[in-house]
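User:
Note these tokens:
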Amino acid sequence: MAQHAAPAPGRGGTGHTGGAALSPTSAAVVVPVVTGIAYGFWAASIDRFGGEVTGGNIALGFVTGIIVAALCFGIHHWSRQQAGRHFLARASAWGAFAGIAIGFLHSLSDPAILWSVMLGLVIGASTFVGTYYRYYSASEYAPL
């Protein structure tokens, strides 16, 4: 007869992480921080238009970087809690986040607003399709 390991008693936790605290070096923390830093630098450099660095450029970089890092962390944390269910809501959240972020960056370069909206929609739809496929194919509902 095969024997299977049983979960150890007293290790109950909440959510998908098993109650373990996030360490500062885990990917769930490092990826949003690096993404926020890169996004902030990118937004500030686009807003400069090749000119000199101003306080407004620096403020824009810090604010957008912090917002993107916080949203990325929040969506990732919420998505991990919903693991195995709510594929549509999770994929929609990532699609909206990616579309709005790229549309905003494109709008900083002063194009026609329609181009920024269209680029945001294309990126958002592509991200939605990719993340929905990933969540569904990793679930128990995916056909074998």
